[in-house]
Amino acid sequence: DAGVIQSPRHEVTEMGQEVTLRCKPISGHNSLFWYRQTMMRGLELLIYFNNNVPIDDSGMPEDRFSAKMPNASFSTLKIQPSEPRDSAVYFCASSGAYGTTNEKLFFGSGTQLSVL
Amino acid sequence: SQQGEEDPQALSIQEGENATMNCSYKTSINNLQWYRQNSGRGLVHLILIRSNEREKHSGRLRVTLDTSKKSSSLLITASRAADTASYFCATDSLSQGGSEKLVFGKGTKLTVNP
Questions:
Q1: pLDDT tens across B71-109, in order?
Q2: Contact A42/B at CB under 8 A
Q3: Do the beta carbons of residue A13 and residue A31 sit within 8 Å?
Q4: What helix, strand, coil percent values describe chain B, rounded to 5?
């Protein structure tokens, strides 16, 4: 198995531009998570899905952020418009369990986002 | 939401020494997990310990859990330079709608000097 695949690996954009991050979870996993990591705030859960349905989006910073999971093998996290304070590493993770805490998460390599 | 807090924030040791990292949390948990992150990479799961367990081993890793003190420790024995990484604890937390989510601490940065 290739693991959780994220793209792009690095993204540099200008303030105000739309940014789309992509994630392919491990085949057969039914839970998918988007995390953001910064030095100041550490690792924050933005949103997670179970069976393609968003369960908890309370970590999404504001309306500029949106996430979709149109099918079991693909998810996107979109920021529109982007701002410099959105600069961070964004991780996608998946799990084979319904619910989040009883099984381990498998993380992708992350997308390093820089908004200038 | 509750969050585990690792201690110390940074730890530097010599190869062959043992490394101990601690995690404290605020409210009752169902289980606690430890993850490792190498620089520029995603997190990798190390071990999960349930609330009714007191100790768990995996290779050179030993995890303890003290629910009365709301704390856990991760011990790496006979450390190697390749153990250099950041180590995170993660605890479950109730979120909106009653669902559970995994909340991470800010990690301990371990440096093992050859």
A1: 999 999 999 999 999 999 998 876 655 567 788 988 999
A2: yes
A3: no
A4: 5, 60, 35
Q: Which residue of B has its CA nearest to A38?
A: B106
| pLDDT tens-digit series, residues A65-104 | 999 999 999 999 999 999 999 999 999 999 986 655 668 8
Rounded to a whole number, what is the distance in Å from the CA of B111 to chain A's nearest CA? 18
Q: How far apart are CA B100 and CA B92, in angstroms?
A: 6
CB-CB under 8 Å, A91 with B43: yes
Size of interface A-B (CB pairs under 8 A): 60
3-state secondary structure of B97: helix
